[in-house]
Amino acid sequence: MNENVWPLVAFLAFGAAVVLVPAHSWRELWPTSLVGGFLLAYLIQYLVGEVLGAWRHLFPSLNLIGIPVWLPLAWFFETLIFMHFLPRTWYWRLVYVLFFGAAASGLVATFRILGIRPLFRGWSPLEAFLLGVFAHFAVLGIDRAVRPQRVEV
Asked: With contact defined as beta carbons under 8 Å apart, do 118 and 112 qualify?
């Protein structure tokens, strides 16, 4: 089971995206999900995990530079869900981003408890929360850069 944990995480994220995000949103949001989900997650995993040594991944399968490719793939699907349900007003966007930061922190804590991703250098769920908030705000900026914006009249 352990060697299948990262493919399982990606498969569950894919299933959630299929159920929650309609096909027209997939077509519209795939550039944001590719750059702000897959590539950003890979960059964060590499810089914080591999370069800074804050964590490491146990039981990697389909590993590239020490990172299971399944993990950024899961973030591709998470970004589809995140962007599809993104609120319109700044207040609710802030609450929404904080919620996703908390969810990221919860995942880090769960992976740590299960022994899937040990944390090092004092890394804790608080840092995961802050990184999750930063990453989701970065996704909003990436979305503006990679996807044509609609002008609402």
From this structure: yes
User: Does residue 30 carry a pLDDT above 90?
Assistant: yes
Q: Does an H or E element contain 127, and which?
A: helix 125-146
φ and ψ of 12, to 5 deg: -65, -40
Structure-token pair, residue 34: 């590719």
What pTM was computed for the model? Answer: 0.86
Mean pLDDT to the nearest integer, 72-79: 94
State the DSSP H helix or E strand holding residue 70, giving kind and residue range, or none if neither: helix 70-84
Note whether 62 and 69 are within 8 A (CB).
Answer: yes
CB 77, CB 18: distance < 8 Å = no
pLDDT score of 119: 63
Q: Judge whether residue 12 has pLDDT over 70.
A: yes
Structure tokens at 144: 């503006």
Helix (H) or strand (E) segment spanning residue 91:
helix 90-113
Tokens describing residue 25: 């949103």
First and final C-alpha spacing in the chain:
52
